[in-house]
Amino acid sequence: MRLLLDTHVVIWWLADDPTLSDEIKQLIDSEPDVYVSPATIWEIAIKQALGKLKEPADLAERVRDCGFADLPIRSVHAIAAGRLPMIHRDPFDRMLVAQAQYEDLTLVTRDPDLQKYEVSILGA
After folding, report:
1. Is this prediction's pTM over 0.85?
2. What sign for the dihedral angle of Cα 74, 5, 123, 49?
């Protein structure tokens, strides 16, 4: 299974947060194809600048360096994200949906609005 991690999932995984089930943690740890989008790192940096995410100060760098595959944002992803139905208005989440759709990835998320899109979802 090829996985794309939503922002909250990668943060929970990095912090070994019990909010993330052991089953999902094990799957993330064992799957060879686990991706993080630059949109996730951008979202973290913005939320920290706004004071919505606190410590650690280098969280964006920790996510970048945690060993998951980087999933570059391409023009086709941007076009697809812009054309998604307005079920979810968050541009970062819309990008993740578009990337998962276009790259045939399973999006790991707990966000119920993302489950309304035509995308493979693994509930976190």
Report:
1. yes
2. negative
Long-range (24+ apart) CB contacts under 8 A made by 91-94 are: 92/7, 92/39, 92/40, 92/42, 92/43, 93/6
**DSSP code per residue over 49-88:** HTTSS-S-TTHHHHHHTSSPEE----HHHHHHHHHS-TT-
- Collapsing DSSP to helix, strand or coil, 109 comes out as strand
Q: Which CATH class is domain 3-123?
A: alpha beta
- Confidence label for 124 from pLDDT (cuts 50, 70 and 90): confident
In this predicted structure, what is the pLDDT of residue 111?
Answer: 94
| Per-residue model confidence (pLDDT) at position 110 | 95
Give the Cα separation of 97 and 117 in Å (integer): 8
CB neighbour list of residue 3: distance below 8 Å, 6 or more residues apart: 27, 28, 31, 33, 34, 35, 105, 106, 107, 108, 122
